[in-house]
Amino acid sequence: MNTVPQNNPLIFYPFTPEFMEDPYPHYAELRRHVPVHEHPGGFWMLSRYDDVSALLRSGLSVEQRHVGPGPFRDAYAKAGVTDEPRLKGLALLDRDPPDHTRLRKLVTQAFTARAINALEPMIRGLVDEALDGIAEAGGGDLVESLAFPLPFTVISRMLGMPPIDTPHMRMLTSLLMRSVELTPDREVMRVIEAADAEIFALVGDAVSRKRREPADDLLTALIAAEDDGDKLTHDELVAQVTMLYVAGYETSVNLISGGALALLRHPDQMELLRAKPELEANAVEETLRYDPPVHTSRRVTLEPYHVGGHDIPAGSFILANLAGANRDEAFWGPDAEELRIDRENARRHLSFGGGMHHCLGATLGRLEGRVALGELVRRFPGLALDGKVEWNGLLSLRGAARLPVRV
């Protein structure tokens, strides 16, 4: 997809250092001038809020096997990518109905809001412990000290995962995240496939162990989940658990680090949050709008799709530009590019997707963000950036790899 623009700056082209540092000016240009964008790489991108929101709720496919012949399919075939999604294609985020409906119904029996809200005391304890370490060190890398270990520990404990080699699992999942990028490369895909197989085997071992030794945890609840005699098969269980495990912390890393960075770059908003802690929940919604953990989502048309005066053909791959839509002036008003933690409609952001594929972990992410950002700001009145932010190099899951602060 690395198609270089020729005499036309209004082509989605994220392969520059400037884009990784700040993609939002590019998103704004696309949204204003080519909001329904047919890319020469063979895919489409929607950037306006109303168009993206409608697409997410449209019921279109998420299965890449439905993409028709053309440059997009050719690029992936050349890179050795098959139509088979990661994790054997069994995770509910990779399935259309009726498979998606069945899987989500079983998974949500165990992944309930009540079970998640019961985690708040544990989350507060982990945040306090992390902030103690930051205080003792006088600062440090906020990703390494808070944004990564908090959600990783929470989802591991919630699932009841056995002790695991954390650095190795982090490396494997970071490779897996590259599978959603628009940069097909044969060598990269080979490494991704190997990581995919290894994660599937690791989680499969944990599932088998939990069958023998059930406990009061989410993994045991998923094994027991049943609907009119229907239960998850072993491979389906492994796929859903891996999805919950990986998505349960990878996106939350960006949520926490991105929220902290937004506040650090807007000291007036950080002071407002200190003065009005009752804004904590809304501050999370606004930082999610301002810089979402996931920048794009995918859909595939099964029949022609009409939007903005364009007829997108059947078999087309469409990128929903969540991050661009979240700053659409036509929906949010003239201050759409500004961070305002008291924004009344901040919760209407599209950062958790929409429709049947609305993020299953939204409640958990909001809880972790509220506690982590609220306590970070409250605990450290002198919190400030302490060096250059380093980015993770991803397009869809763009976030900080290193966020240096001093306290």
Task: Describe this structure as you would to a colleague.
The protein is 51% helix and 9% strand. It is globular, with a radius of gyration of 21 Å. The protein has helices spanning 17-21, 24-33, 49-56, 71-78, 99-110, 113-117, 120-137, 142-147, 149-159, 166-177, 186-212, 218-224, 234-264, 267-275, 280-290, 322-325, 329-332, 362-379; strands spanning 36-38, 44-46, 139-141, 296-300, 305-307, 310-312, 317-321, 384-385, 390-391, 400-402, 404-406. The chain is an alpha+beta fold and 407 residues long. The protein has a 4-stranded mixed β-sheet, sandwiched between helices. Residues 1-7 have low confidence and may be disordered. The chain is built from 18 helices and 11 strands. The longest helix has 31 residues, at 234-264.
Task: Produce the secondary structure layout.
Blueprint: H1 17-21, H2 24-33, E1 36-38, E2 44-46, H3 49-56, H4 71-78, H5 99-110, H6 113-117, H7 120-137, E3 139-141, H8 142-147, H9 149-159, H10 166-177, H11 186-212, H12 218-224, H13 234-264, H14 267-275, H15 280-290, E4 296-300, E5 305-307, E6 310-312, E7 317-321, H16 322-325, H17 329-332, H18 362-379, E8 384-385, E9 390-391, E10 400-402, E11 404-406
Helix pairs in contact: 5-12, 7-9, 7-18, 9-13, 10-11, 11-13, 13-15, 13-18, 15-18
Number of helices: 18
Oligomer: single chain
Return Rg in Å. Answer: 21 Å
**Using DSSP, what is the number of strands?**
11
Helix content: 40-55%
Which class do the helix and strand fractions yield? alpha+beta
Distance between the termini: 42 Å
Compute the average pLDDT: 90
What share of the residues does DSSP label as strand, in percent? 5-15%
Q: What is the string of helix and strand elements?
A: HHEEHHHHHEHHHHHHHHEEEEHHHEEEE
* Spatial order of strands in the largest sheet: 1-2-7-4
Envelope shape: globular
Biggest sheet statistics: 4 strands, mixed
Pick out the low-confidence regions. Answer: 1-7
